[in-house]
Amino acid sequence: MVNSGKYWIAPSILNADQDNLEAEIDKVSQVADLLHLDIMDNRFVPNITLGIDRARELIKSSNIKFDTHLMVERPEEIAPLYAAAGSYSTTFHLEATEFPNETIKKISDYGSKVGIAIKPKTPIEELFPYLDKIDMALIMTVEPGFGGQSYISKMEEKIKILRKYLDEAELAKVKIEVDGGITESTIKRAADAGAEVFVAGSAVYRGSNPAEAVERLRHILL
């Protein structure tokens, strides 16, 4: 794990070979800052991915910190499981719970950093009451649920508004993360708007050398 500069690259294994995830993670573990783990329940989003038992195995066996993104209903019940499993950061969707403050506390009680994500149609202002309690604000730049979607450029306005709010509130500890359609042609635009953590799935794993793909994305941000 690199995790030393202003910008962090977090490859998502949603587009990786699901039958060989340990090997797929190993391909990027020396060059990426975090490993983005998408957890879906086929209820909050129309897709399903691995569960807590498999996540524990991957976290335990991998030499990289996990950025776990929960696209699930009732995160107040589920998020603590992933925090306790050793996730470096555990992110839940604001739209998925009526108990955001309770969910924040449960995650942080296990020593995990806390993130809150919002869908493209959710106003950015809905995040503001929680920003002083969290470590990561994830702005979805596609609709959650599937990899390989096109970047929604109008989300850059949300990023700018959030960046301005965080700067004025002196909340430098809160990182702005973006997820969806992050490629060599979009990553700089998101960074210029104020994003700092970039989830990239197909841009990393669609080719034969995921590590080189991560390094190309990083080079664009220099």
Write the layout of secondary structure elements.
Layout: E1 8-11, H1 21-26, E2 35-40, H2 52-61, E3 66-71, H3 75-84, E4 89-93, H4 100-109, E5 113-118, E6 136-140, H5 155-168, E7 175-179, H6 187-193, E8 197-200, H7 202-205, H8 210-221
Parallel strand pairs: 1-8, 2-3, 3-4, 4-5, 5-6, 6-7, 7-8
Helix pairs in contact: 3-4
Task: Describe, in short, the structure shown.
The protein is of the alpha/beta class. It has helices at residues 21-26, 52-61, 75-84, 100-109, 155-168, 187-193, 202-205, 210-221; strands at 8-11, 35-40, 66-71, 89-93, 113-118, 136-140, 175-179, 197-200. It is built from eight helices and eight strands; from the N terminus they run βαβαβαβαββαβαβαα.
Looking at this protein, list some descriptive labels:
222 residues, alpha/beta, 8 helices, 33% helix, 18% strand
Q: How would you characterize the overall build of this protein?
A:
By secondary structure, the protein is α/β, with parallel strands linked by helices. The chain is 33% helix and 18% strand. It is built from 8 helices and 8 strands. The chain has helices at residues 21-26, 52-61, 75-84, 100-109, 155-168, 187-193, 202-205, 210-221; strands at 8-11, 35-40, 66-71, 89-93, 113-118, 136-140, 175-179, 197-200. It has an 8-stranded parallel sheet with strand order 1-8-7-6-5-4-3-2. The longest helix has 14 residues, at 155-168. The radius of gyration is 16 Å and the shape is globular. The model has no long low-confidence stretch (mean pLDDT 96).
